[in-house]
Design a protein that fits this description.
The protein has 14 helices and 15 strands. By secondary structure, the chain is of the alpha/beta class. The chain binds adenosine-5'-triphosphate and magnesium ion (MG).
């Protein structure tokens, strides 16, 4: 018997002729995510990936917690790999189920809601079999029936319940046979690196980390740009953004973060443009700078955390004026989401607690009391012409600091 990790992937299956490229990328990302945990062999067979550690003290828990953050993976299981021989399967199955029931019994005693597991002290189960190896003499229903009977006889405290079992026991008979009790869900999506590179405008807020995560989930490699208005925004505000990039890097493996000095531009805008246009002109400048840094680094799209109507600068009219500043596609994955939906994802991906740390950001420092909710492009352009934008943007891009986060 050998303990291995079984990885299931989903959508990659749909990619036709591109499928091998998607699978190769997924395997590369998997190997990379396991860096530092010791030697493993990663192999693929019949739309499954198997990870076999070479050492006995392999840390399966850490491996699983990293794998569930690899996009493209739908779920993982820690499984026992045994010879595809029914006597061997039965023996190991009994051993695995005995361990599992002991564990389940402990948590059941600690108060299961249904109380079913405790009724009569028995835990109910059902065997789910799959036979991918047609040379194996029994068909799936027969495997389930015979193995179920064997377990019932050989593991104390069990009963069968095919409708609402306390747990499922899975048997997959392939060249080898894989047995397991748990399926741990992952996020699905596509492997990072299969959808080009996006440049994320990463603030310290709740929305933009979620936006970056969502595009990474669709296979985009992510780089980030942050506008820093020192000393109006503090070093701690910058550290917060670095922390957010670090959390995102657990999903994207590595994030290159560009920190743009934005103070001079903000002061200029503040000085020369009417208050109600400050935010929109600032946002146009951000987009231009981000586009330039994106082009220099091979990114083909910008990503923002905008959501329609959330604030004055995110009305349809304001977004139209902002968008007009650049020609690269701008991905706004949160555009149709409510704040509570975004918060829910932020919690799930672990960025929320960092995002709500109370450090100021540049948009809150220079903000008008009554920003225009329906700005006009011609007016924005007219006010902008009072600035030496080309010069200002060139300087900001040149003085940008770049950090590699993660890995
Ligand atoms: P977030 O929660 O992402 O900060 P928000 O709801 O506060 O978003 P805005 O402050 O209007 O909205 O910003 C809209 C988008 O502009 C952000 O989601 C982000 O993509 C980008 N952005 C705003 N401020 C910055 C900044 N200082 N650096 C980089 N990007 C920024
Ligand atoms: Mg913000």
């Amino acid at each position: 018997m050998k303990k291995v990790i079984l990885v299931r992937y989903g959508e990659i299956m749909l990619k036709g002729l591109n499928r091998p490229a998607f699978e190769d990328r997924l395997i590369r990302n998997i190997k990379r995510s396991l860096n530092g945990l010791g030697k493993t062999t990663v192999s693929r067979s019949q739309a499954r990936i198997y990870i076999e550690p070479e050492q006995d003290d392999f840390d399966f828990e850490s491996a699983v917690s990293r794998l569930v953050r690899v996009f493209g993976i739908v779920s993982v299981s820690i499984v026992w790999k045994v010879e595809s021989d029914f006597e061997t399967i039965k023996k190991h199955s009994a051993e695995m189920v005995r361990d599992y029931v002991a564990k389940l019994g402990g948590s059941a005693a600690a108060g299961r809601e249904s109380g079913q597991a405790n009724a009569g002290g028995k835990v109910s189960f059902k065997v789910e079999s799959k036979r991918g190896n047609k040379r194996f003499p029994l068909e799936s229903p027969e495997i389930s029936r015979q193995l179920g009977g064997y377990l019932l006889k050989n593991v104390p405290g069990l009963k069968v319940d095919v409708n609402d079992p306390d747990f499922l026991f899975f048997v997959e008979v392939r060249e080898y046979t894989y047995i397991y009790c748990d399926i741990i869900p992952a996020f699905g999506g596509l492997p990072v690196g299969t959808s080009g590179k996006g440049m994320l405008l990463l603030s310290g807020g709740i929305d933009s980390p979620v936006a970056g995560w969502m595009m990474a989930k669709r296979g985009m490699e992510i780089e980030a740009v942050h506008f820093h208005t020192y000393p109006y925004t503090s070093e701690r505000a910058k550290d917060k953004v670095i922390s957010l990039a670090k959390i995102l890097s657990q999903y994207c493996q590595r994030i290159r973060l560009h920190i743009v000095p934005f103070t001079e531009i903000q002061l200029e805008i503040n000085d020369k443009c009417p208050a109600e246009y400050l935010t929109i002109i600032m946002r146009r400048a951000m987009m231009r700078i981000a586009e330039r840094i994106a082009a220099q680094n091979g990114a083909i799209a910008l990503i923002t955390g905008e959501s329609l109507g959330q604030v004055a600068s995110q009305t349809a009219e304001a977004i139209a004026v902002t968008n007009n500043a650049v020609s690269m596609p701008v991905f706004r994955p949160l555009i149709g989401m409510d704040k509570n939906e975004v918060v829910e994802i932020a919690r799930k991906i672990d960025t929320y607690e960092t995002s709500i740390l109370p450090y100021e950001d540049c948009c809150t420092v220079f903000v008008a009391k009554h920003p225009k909710t329906k700005p006009k492009l011609e007016e924005a352009k007219e006010y902008e012409s009072r600035l030496d934008l080309e010069e200002l943007i060139g300087r900001a891009v040149r003085d940008t600091e770049t950090l590699d986060i993660g890995d």
